[in-house]
Design a protein that fits this description.
single chain; alpha/beta; four-stranded mixed β-sheet; about 45% helix; binds pyridoxal-5'-phosphate
């Protein structure tokens, strides 16, 4: 009896296709210095220049001259790869300096750099949970997949509270024996909603119920706070949070993830987490690029100010046009279409007729019926780019009756 493995996996792919969730990735070539413009190559081989409206390089640090220079120098100095895990020989000067740099960013004793933000969450939460017998996680229902997988890997109890709902969180905290160790896990800026967690109130509950706090600032580092330390820095709350996690892949325009905390916590994750121990370290060029971006944004507020200006203009134009965007406080502007095919149609028309690239956000990333465009105005968009986008959306909503059904 032979097993047709190929056929089996093809069936799995067909299932995704039949649900309309099969993805074809847009083939884009960003041009350093020209972002948010990029060259788009369509499946039939044609090329055109498009403006990207769904990228997380919010501050355009990926093309910043200082960042490119740092990466180039590290590449030429040390070569392409780190050559080993951190334990063996991958601990280069560049990662050591980067860890000190993020610890300083969040005013913590220590930092630990990992392969990505995903790996940092998954590795840190898995390890912190496993090392804390009888602990319970309290997790916001909209937390990112990386945190969910980390908590799951720890095999500890997990209680899910309704999004940003303090009463529900407190009910759940009350329901668990006060003597048991607890970890509250949440994000500052929620990436699909664009809203911000009540960090102070959550920290107050953590004190009241003797819980540890773990905060994902992935969409906030670089963008908020006078040195780019995120929402907790902006609100003067960094010392109320036990572990602050972030990425170099979004606002810092490079790649890699990190956690910062007191030395004991960092040392525990460093010593126990398989996701940290058994993988090759970040390459010198990537570490150097990340560090140049973090250091630049500790002292420069120009990029943050430009994002705010663009986002304010976008929100005010969408508001005036009566378009149904979700009114969060952050720089992320989700525009609700409310139906999967329609959402895809809108993005196809934007690409075909306006040379604007936005990826539709559909189930399972967001609940059915709330399909949306997630618009990100970066520091590199001009005010004209913003106006062009807002006008294009207004045209679409005016000319396509199917879009009228979701009210602002
Ligand atoms: C993107 C994202 C991550 C993962 O970060 P990467 O560096 O891209 O792996 C973690 N948390 C949240 C909330 C994210 O949106």
């Amino acid at each position: 009896m032979s097993i047709d493995y190929n056929k089996h996996y093809q069936k799995c792919v067909d299932a995704v296709k039949s649900e309309g969730r099969y993805r074809i990735f847009a083939n884009l070539e960003r041009k350093a210095g020209r972002f948010p413009k990029a060259v788009y190559r369509s499946p039939n081989g044609t090329e055109k220049e498009v403006t990207i409206w769904c990228n997380n390089d919010y501050l355009a640090m990926g093309q910043h001259p200082k960042v490119i220079k740092a990466a180039r120098e590290a590449l030429e100095n040390s070569g392409a790869g780190a050559g080993g895990t951190r334990n063996i020989s991958g601990t280069t000067r560049y990662v050591v300096e980067l860890e000190a740099c993020v610890a300083d960013l969040h005013n913590k004793e220590a930092g630990l750099v990992m392969s990505s933000g995903y790996v940092a969450n998954e590795g840190a939460l898995g390890t912190l949970g496993k090392l804390l017998p009888e602990c319970a996680f309290f997790s916001d229902e909209l937390n990112h997949a990386s945190m969910i997988h980390g908590m799951k890997d720890s095999k500890q109890q997990k209680l899910i509270y309704r999004h940003n709902d303090l009463e529900h969180l407190e009910d759940l905290l009350k329901s668990v024996d006060i003597k048991r160790p607890k970890i509250i896990v949440f994000e500052s800026v929620y990436s699909m909603e664009g809203d911000i967690a009540p960090i102070k109130e959550i920290a107050d509950l953590a004190d009241k119920y003797n819980a540890m706090t773990y905060l994902d600032e992935v969409h906030a580092v670089g963008l908020y706070g006078s040195r780019g330390g995120g929402i907790a820095e902006e609100r003067g709350l960094m010392d109320r949070i036990d572990v602050i996690e972030g990425t170099f892949g979004k606002g810092y325009g490079a790649m890699g993830g990190f956690i910062t905390a007191n030395t004991a916590i960092i040392d525990a994750v460093r010593s126990y987490s398989p996701s940290f121990i058994f993988t090759t370290a970040l390459p010198p060029a990537v570490s150097a690029a990340a560090m140049a971006a973090v250091e630049h944004l500790k002292v420069s507020g120009v990029e943050r100010a430009k994002v705010r200006e663009n986002v304010a203009l976008l929100k005010s134009m969408l508001s005036e046009a009566g378009l149904p965007f979700m009114k969060g406080e952050s720089h992320i502007v989700p525009l609700v279409v409310g139906e999967a095919t329609c959402c895809k149609d809108v993005t196809d028309i934007l690409m075909r007729e306006y040379n604007i690239y936005v990826q539709p956000i559909n189930y399972p990333t967001v609940p059915r019926g709330t399909e949306r465009l997630r618009l990100t105005a970066t520091a590199a968009h001009s005010l004209d780019d913003v106006k062009f986008m807002a006008n294009a959306l207004q045209d679409l909503w005016r000319n396509h009756s199917m879009l009228g059904s979701v009210a602002a």
